[in-house]
Design a protein that fits this description.
single chain; three-stranded antiparallel sheet; 13 helices; 611 residues; alpha+beta; 15-stranded antiparallel sheet
Length: 611
C-alpha cells in the first residue's frame, strides 16, 4: 500500500450523513462515522501507521502491463475500482445507500467484488483505529464470515459473502479469495453504537441494493434544470455537493476531511467538516440555479434556526461556522499522536476560527434568505430584522476577514461589500413581503457602506479595489463584486480591478487568494492557487465580456480535476491537488462558472458572434 497516496487519488462514497474516501488502490483511508464530524474509524490518510484503513484489492504483480483504474458509474455515487492484468480483470464497487432525514448511528458501506475476465485473487485487510487512532479495540470473531471490532462506545461489524475466509491478525483481520469470471463476492462494513450483528445479506440482496443506489442518484439528477455544455462535470459537482450535505438538518460541510495540507509539510492544516455560513449560502445559490429547490430550502431552514437561536461562541448574533446540527462550539485540539499527511503537522480536530469576527457572513446569510419567497414565520422575520438592526450599530469595525487568517484584524473591503449586501437584501425582502422593518435606517446604512467602500476600498495607485483599507494588496474575494450586484460586471472601476488581478493574482488562469508575503497572515509557509477563486475569475471574465478567455480558462481548470471529477481546495505548482478534499467551495464555484459561461455563450451565439 502506498503510504500516502496523492490527495487527488481518491473517490468518495456516502449516504448523506457520512462519507468515506476510497483510494485508487481500493483502500478506504478516511471514514468518520456516524456523522461527518465524528471521530474517525479509518484515517490512514493522516497517519499511515496509526490511522487505520480497510483495503480490498486484487493481487496483481506490477509487471506485464497490470493497471488499476477508478471511475464512477455515470451520474451516481457508486465508485468502481478496476484491477486489470494478463491473468484477469476484476472490479470492486463501493457504495453507501442514501439515508433519509432521520439521523442514525448505524451506517453501512458495501464493497462488491466481481471478476469479468480470467481469474484473480483478492486480498482484504481491515485495521480500524477508533477515535483518530487514540482508542484501543478488541476483536470478536463471530464465524469464518463475520467479525465485530469493539471500540469505545461504538462497534464496527465486518461481514463477507462469497469465498472469503476471515483470519484474525491480532485485533485486526485479513482474508483472501479467488474469483473466476462471473463470480461475485462482497464485504459489508456496518458501524453502530450498539446492537446485534446485522443479518447477513445474500449476494442477490447486495446486488439489488447497488441497483437501488444507482436508481436513487439517477432519479435525483432528473430534477436538475441544467441543459448546458458541461453536463458531465456539472452533474458530478452537484452529486458531490449533495454527498457533502447532512440530510437530517440540510447543512452542507465545507469538505469531507480535516488536516490535509495546503503545503506538503506545512502547518496550514485545518478541520473543514463543519458548516460555514459563507460556503453554505453560496452552495444554496448554486443548487437553486440548478433546480435543486429541496436542498436549498432545507439549508435555509437550518440558517433561519441559527439566526433565531443566537447563543454563539463568538458572542455575535451569528458566527462564521457551526457543527452540522447547529452547535456553535467547535473546540480545536491538536492530535499530536498523528504524523499528518506525508508529515504535515499539526493535525487539528475542531476549528478555533469559529469565534473569529467576520462581518461578511451577515451578507451571505441575507443573500441566501433572499433567494426564496418562503420567508418563514413572523418570529423568523423578527429575528432576521433584529440581526440587521444590530448590524446597523456594529458594522463599522475591523474583523478577521473571509480567509480566516490569524494575522490580526483589519477593515477588510470584502467584509464591507457583504455588509452592503446584507442591508440591500434586507430592504428588498421587507419591501417585497411588506414586513415590518426600519427600512429608512437600513437604507441609510447601506448607502453609507457603499460610499465607504468606493472611497476607502479603492486604491488610486493600483486603480483597483484592494484587500483592506490600509493596503494596496489585491484580494480575490472581491471577484464577487459584480456577482452580488454591487457594481455592474462592465463598470469601468470593476474592469480596472479585474485587469489588476490579472497582473498580481493570476498565473496561467489559476488564481491566488492574495499575496501572503505582501499581506502577512500570521502563518508560516505558502499555499497553492485557490480553486474557488479560479472559478470566480472565470465567471467574472465571462460576465465582463472576455468570453474567449473565460472559456479557455474553464477548459484548463477542468484538467485539474482528478480522475473521477473531484477537486480539492487548491492546486500546487506542479498541478497537484492540495488541501481538504473534496472541497464544496470549489464545486459550487465550478457550477456558477459553468452556468455563467453557458448564459454568455448563448447570448453571443444568438447575436451571431459565435462561441
Amino acid at each position: 500500500m502506498n503510504a500516502y497516496p496523492p490527495i487527488a487519488d481518491h473517490g468518495m462514497v456516502g449516504d448523506l450523513q457520512t462519507a468515506a474516501l476510497v483510494s485508487s488502490e481500493g483502500t478506504i483511508d478516511w471514514w468518520c462515522t456516524p456523522r461527518f464530524d465524528s471521530p474517525s474509524v479509518f484515517a490512514s490518510l493522516l497517519d499511515s501507521e496509526r490511522g487505520g484503513y480497510c483495503r480490498l484489492s486484487a493481487d496483481l504483480a506490477p509487471k506485464d502491463g497490470a493497471a488499476v483504474r477508478q471511475l464512477y458509474l455515470t451520474d451516481t455515487a457508486v465508485l468502481v475500482t478496476r484491477f486489470m492484468g494478463p491473468e484477469g480483470v476484476g472490479e470492486v464497487a463501493d457504495f453507501m445507500s442514501p439515508l433519509d432525514t432521520t439521523s442514525t448511528d448505524r451506517h453501512r458501506l458495501v464493497r462488491v467484488v466481481r471478476v469479468v475476465r480470467g481469474s484473480l485473487d483478492f486480498d482484504l485487510v481491515c485495521r480500524p483505529r477508533f477515535d483518530y487512532g487514540r482508542a484501543p479495540h478488541t476483536l470478536e470473531r463471530v464465524d469464518d464470515k463475520s467479525v465485530t471490532f469493539h471500540g469505545p462506545d461504538t462497534k464496527l461489524y465486518l461481514q463477507t459473502m462469497g469465498p472469503f475466509v476471515i483470519q484474525p491478525d491480532a485485533e485486526d483481520i485479513t482474508a483472501r479469495c479467488t474469483l473466476a469470471a462471473g463470480d461475485i463476492a462482497a464485504v459489508v462494513l456496518t458501524n453502530a453504537n450498539d446492537g446485534p450483528l446485522p443479518p447477513l445479506p445474500s449476494l442477490d440482496e447486495i446486488t439489488e441494493e447497488l441497483e437501488s443506489c444507482r436508481t436513487f442518484w439517477h432519479t435525483w439528477l432528473r430534477t436538475s434544470s441544467y441543459r448546458g455544455r458541461w453536463r458531465d462535470i456539472v452533474n458530478r459537482s452537484a452529486i458531490t455537493l449533495k454527498l457533502l450535505t447532512y440530510a437530517p438538518t440540510g447543512a452542507p460541510i465545507a469538505a469531507l476531511t480535516m488536516g490535509l495540507p495546503e503545503q506538503i509539510g506545512g502547518e496550514r492544516n485545518w478541520d473543514y467538516r463543519f458548516t460555514w455560513i459563507r460556503d453554505a449560502s453560496l452552495s444554496v445559490r448554486a443548487m437553486t440555479d440548478l433546480g435543486f429547490v429541496d436542498e436549498a430550502a432545507a439549508f435555509r431552514r437550518w440558517l433561519r434556526e441559527r439566526v433565531a437561536a443566537g447563543g454563539t461562541a463568538s458572542g455575535e448574533p451569528l458566527q462564521i461556522m457551526y457543527r452540522i446540527d447547529g452547535d456553535p462550539y467547535l473546540t480545536e485540539e491538536l492530535l499530536d499522536h498523528l504524523e499528518g499527511y506525508a508529515g504535515s503537522a499539526p493535525v487539528r480536530a475542531g476549528n478555533a476560527a469559529a469565534d473569529q469576527i467576520q462581518l461578511d457572513i451577515y451578507g451571505e446569510m441575507a443573500d441566501a434568505l433572499a433567494q426564496t419567497r418562503d420567508m418563514g414565520d413572523i418570529r423568523g422575520w423578527k429575528a432576521f430584522a433584529d440581526v440587521l438592526d444590530w448590524l446597523a450599530d456594529h458594522w463599522d469595525r475591523p474583523d478577521e476577514g473571509i480567509w480566516e487568517t490569524r494575522g490580526g484584524q483589519q477593515e477588510f473591503t470584502y467584509s464591507r461589500l457583504m455588509t452592503w449586501v446584507a442591508f440591500d437584501r434586507g430592504i428588498r425582502l421587507a419591501t417585497a413581503f411588506s414586513r415590518p422593518a426600519d427600512v429608512g435606517r437600513w437604507t441609510e446604512v447601506r448607502d453609507t457602506v457603499f460610499k465607504q467602500v468606493v472611497e476607502r476600498g479603492w486604491s488610486a495607485k493600483r486603480q483597483a479595489f484592494v484587500q483592506h483599507y490600509a493596503t494596496d494588496v489585491l484580494d480575490a474575494s472581491l471577484l464577487l463584486i459584480p456577482k452580488v450586484g454591487f457594481l455592474s460586471p462592465t463598470d469601468p472601476s470593476w474592469l480596472s480591478t479585474l485587469e489588476a488581478m490579472d497582473q498580481e493574482l493570476v498565473s496561467d488562469s489559476l488564481v491566488y487568494r492574495y499575496n501572503p508575503e505582501a499581506s502577512p497572515d500570521g502563518l508560516r509557509g505558502s499555499e497553492g492557487t485557490f480553486n474557488l477563486c479560479s472559478f470566480l475569475y472565470i465567471e467574472a471574465l465571462a460576465r465582463a465580456g472576455r468570453l474567449q478567455e473565460a472559456r479557455y480558462a474553464f477548459d484548463k481548470m477542468l484538467t485539474y480535476a482528478n480522475h473521477v471529477g473531484l477537486f480539492a481546495e487548491e492546486i500546487g505548482p506542479s498541478g497537484e491537488q492540495l488541501g481538504n478534499f473534496p472541497q464544496a467551495f470549489t464545486h459550487l464555484a465550478l457550477l456558477a462558472a459553468a452556468i455563467a459561461l453557458d448564459e454568455q455563450l448563448d447570448k453571443a451565439e444568438g447575436n451571431g458572434a459565435g462561441g
